[in-house]
Give the backbone structure.
Amino acid sequence: MELLASIRPEDVDPKSTRFDYATFTSRPAARVILFDGDKVALIYVSKHNYYMLPGGGIEDEDVAAGLGREILEEVGCEAKIEHEVGSIEVYFDRWHQKQVDYCYTAQKISSPDASARTEFEEEEGHQIVWAANLAEAIELVEKAAPKERDGMLVRARDLLFLKTLAAK
């Protein structure tokens, strides 16, 4: 999968100091630009005022299985994974992790049920939002003003994934 970018704290926050990134632990993750017709699923993180693509860490599973699990947990539906968008390395200083996110497009294939958010996701105020289309999803992510550096990193990552797909 094509590596689209490496995003570090200093890329999104001029107040950030440089870190010894060689010491960061690696964490694989998967993201999805999930369509229901033209609509695009986003997760709004109300506690920190930003939107992100559904997805998360890959456990002891392949990327497709992990992504399917994350879609079911976060959005509450099943989806058919379709195309690769690309990958992005994100350096999260908060967790001292280099997260490699692999992004795909997918189509919703079952009606949403109740999602199974984690305690952390509940505390962060995760809410499913369906943008009317890809352009509106980009606009929502672009206009968000994250309060913390993690949100700034996520915003930069997901905006690049969305814009990469829009350019195809």
